Amino acid sequence: MPSLACATVPNKRPGALPPPAAARLWRRGRRFFVACSVAACGVAFTVFPPLAAGEPASKKTLNLSPPFGLRQSLPLPVQGTPFDKLRANGFVQEVPKKIVSLDLCTDWMLARYAPPERIAAFSPMHRAYFAPWMPEALRHAPTHTGEAENILRLQPDLVIVGQYNVPLLRAQLQRLGLRVEILPLSTLPDAVPEYERRFLALLGLPPERASLPP
User: Fold this and answer.
1) How far apart are the C-alpha atoms of 151 and 144, rounded to whole Å?
2) How many CA atoms lie less than 13 Å away from 136 in the CB half-sphere?
3) How far is residue 139 from each of residues 23, 57, 97, 98, 108, measured CA to CA in Å?
4) What is the mean pLDDT of the chain?
5) Residue 95: which region, alpha, beta or left (left: phi > 0; alpha: psi -120 to 50)?
6) Distances from the Cα of 40 to the Cαs of 14, 32, 34, 49, 187, in angstroms?
7) pLDDT per residue over 137-158, tens digit each?
8) Which residues pair with 143 in a beta bridge?
9) Using 50, 70 and 90 to split pLDDT, how confident is the model at 10?
10) Which residues, listed in sequence order, are joined to residue 158 by a DSSP beta bridge?
11) H/E run at residue 148
């Protein structure tokens, strides 16, 4: 009579899956890999659309339209592009017509460069620190209260603020869907013209209006 030990599988590892279960696991893993590959190809062709026939490679653009976060396609960034080329390269959105400032510095920049009809509101500090070089017509220009609800009612298409000012307010406005541009602080006199050129680019104004280096 044969021994019962002959019915066991020799050298079977403890915990090893039987052949049918292992095959099912392999097929599931293969299907998952194929699905991921197809999804990755779809994302690649959406973000990096193929070039049309005869189209030079320099014209290739990033398609970052929803659901990828931005409203429009932007050209691939060029390394070392200065701020005075932002408008020429298409990095600036449509020209804003209702601009709101959140701090005194951007108040003065708006008063210096922006047409009055495009200023929706200055910050609450505007009237308390009215500069003598400003046009008298701006003395009683509209101001906001510094509250998100008040700014939202103005329906601005651009909100400008300095790098270190009102971080909670600007974050709240961004969550509400407003376009908030944060200007970095100029720490050296030589950096002021670059700061002004970036500001002018955001407003859709010629960068040649920026101040000359000291």
Assistant:
1) 6
2) 0
3) 79, 52, 20, 18, 12
4) 73
5) beta
6) 38, 12, 10, 13, 44
7) 999 999 999 999 999 999 999 9
8) 122
9) very low
10) 99
11) helix 148-154
